[in-house]
Amino acid sequence: MHWQSQWHPSGIPQLRRCTSNTRRPRVGFEEESRLANTDRDWNGRYLAGDLPWDSGLASRELQRVIEAQRIAPCRALELGCGSGTNAVELARRGFDVTGVDCAPQALKIAREKAAAAGVNVRWIEADVQNFGAGQPPFDFVFDRGCYHCCRRVDFAGYQATLRNVTRPGTLMLCLAGNVDDQSDSHIPKVSADDLQREFGPLFDFILRRPFHFQDAGGVEGPLGWSVLMVRRSSNTI
Questions:
Q1: CB-hemisphere CA count at 13 Å for 177?
Q2: What's the pLDDT at 237?
Q3: Domains and CATH numbers, the chain
Q4: How many Å apart are CA 200 and CA 162, to the nearest integer?
Q5: Which residue from 209, 208, 199 is spatially nearest to 231, judged by alpha carbons?
Q6: Are 127 and 102 in contact (CB under 8 A)?
Q7: Distance (Å, rounded) from C-alpha 25 to C-alpha 10?
Q8: Strand pairing category for 96-101 and 121-125
Q9: Residues facing residue 225 across a β-bridge
């Protein structure tokens, strides 16, 4: 599939950014986060510092895709933003960023990172499943490791979120575990068929390639999938 040398949203109203230490959740977000449908205690993991997935490094693959596809700064959402490293990187690149996560401790760390970097990010504490109703759709959505966890718990809720936060033309980059990974990592894994079946009804794929996650210190991590997609004008979900 041919993709233009530069992508930039047009005709989409822009929202003023909030400061990194300001939360303006809609009514019910706090309740949603406390009742998040998850398969583990994510906040407890952040409180304990038990974060094998959190390298503390901005995703090389995110940066590669932005640069290779010439994705211009726009309204961006990170699903499952965790401690905020990638949301902060997007903001540093000029994106108008919102990060959502269900773990308040993760967002506390994220706010500190944004303040230290001198960037503005809107942080929202909420369940990433069934999220975003009533919000203006975003131009770019990033997911590093959220989808491959949510699909095991409430994939219908995750699909509902994607319908809420995207519009025709929205780009989405999803980084997920790869079923061909031979390491001893416990990262959830998906196949190429899984990706096509679960994202195909809503998105057209621009690229899908294997890549390696980064672990702390820049060490090569488990094998994953890098999938760049564009929301189509009609869907079958």
A1: 21
A2: 54
A3: 47-231 (3.40.50.150)
A4: 12
A5: 199
A6: yes
A7: 26
A8: parallel
A9: 176, 210
Rounded Cα gap, residues 114 and 93, in angstroms:
13
Q: How far is CA 124 from CA 29, 52, 99, 163, 187, in A?
A: 8, 23, 6, 18, 25
Q: Is 118 left (phi over 0), alpha (psi -120 to 50) or beta?
A: left
Which residue is it, tokens 């004008």?
233
Residues 117-176: tens digit of each pLDDT: 999 999 999 999 999 998 899 999 999 999 998 898 899 999 999 999 999 999 999 999
Which residues lie closer than 8 Å to 132 by C-beta, 6 or more apart? 161, 164, 165
How many C-beta neighbours within 10 Å does residue 114 have? 24
What is the per-residue pLDDT for 173? 98
Dist CA 25 CA 28 (whole Å): 8
CB 23 within 8 A of CB 123: yes
Containing 64, the helix (H) or strand (E) segment is helix 60-68
Closest by CA to 180, choosing from 208, 204, 211, is 211
**Given CA atoms 144, 227, 180, 158 in this order, what sign does their dihedral have?**
positive
In the chain, count H helices and then E strands. 8, 7
Q: Which H or E run contains 154? A: none
CA separation for the pair 161, 32 (Å, rounded): 13
